[in-house]
Amino acid sequence: MSLPAHELRWIRERARNERELNELIARREGGEPLQYVVARWGFRTLELYVDRRVLIPRPETEVVAGAVIDLDPQNVVVDLGTGSGAIACAVAAETNAARIIATDASPDALDVARANVAGLGQPALRVEIHEGEWFSAVPDDVRGAVEVIVSNPPYVAEHEELPSEVIDWEPRGALIAGPTGLESIAHIVRHAPEWLAPGGALVLEIAPHQRDEVLAMCTAFARCEVRRDLTGRDRVLVARG
After folding, report:
1. Are 98 and 126 in contact (CB under 8 A)?
2. Extended beta strands in the chain, E state
3. What is the pLDDT of residue 122?
4. CB 38 within 8 A of CB 59
5. Domain boundaries in the chain?
6. Is the entire prediction scored with pTM above 0.70?
7. Residues 53-240, CATH architecture
8. Closest alpha carbon to 33 in 10, 17, 16, 65
């Protein structure tokens, strides 16, 4: 595997000596994603730490974070399945939300999220991290008072094929939702209304082919739309109470 010049440049910037440079190059040539090799990746205005415990931050998810930021939340934001903490960190850095609650069922992922939150400086004081499955990890004192719920949940079906660079390296539990791919989305859509404040919003990353099925789930919301990502594909559900 011959590495492109820009990848070699990023790897050289991370290596502290010739031995480490050769080790990093060997990892990349062995198929490991560049983001894990260099252990850092850009997400909106931030540079985040990433490794195999979390999904690689992608441009599609930057659009999800942007949808939350455009809502200009001032009170409580809940990021379900935070992974690396990318969305929660972006919201903390780019809004004045008073309380940002980031949850994940994976303690390993939360270790990465904590590292990224710690790198925020002053905005980190508004972020709290809780371990648990979906809403079970959200403190009960915000039930009915959340301004925005956001998530990039697993949305791949068990039968769907993914590139080897994805399925062989990234955490399977953060990718595969179940037989249909809609299991995690359906759970969040079903339970979100009891946590949202009046007029609150649910923002979800989805697969483009799931658009119609996801919109059909949103019967408890007054307004629903699916926005497109940077490549023009249906990607971001925004549902308002």
Report:
1. yes
2. 40-43, 46-49, 76-80, 99-104, 127-131, 146-151, 156-157, 176-178, 196-205, 223-228, 234-240
3. 96
4. no
5. 1-38, 53-240
6. yes
7. 3-Layer(aba) Sandwich (3.40)
8. 10
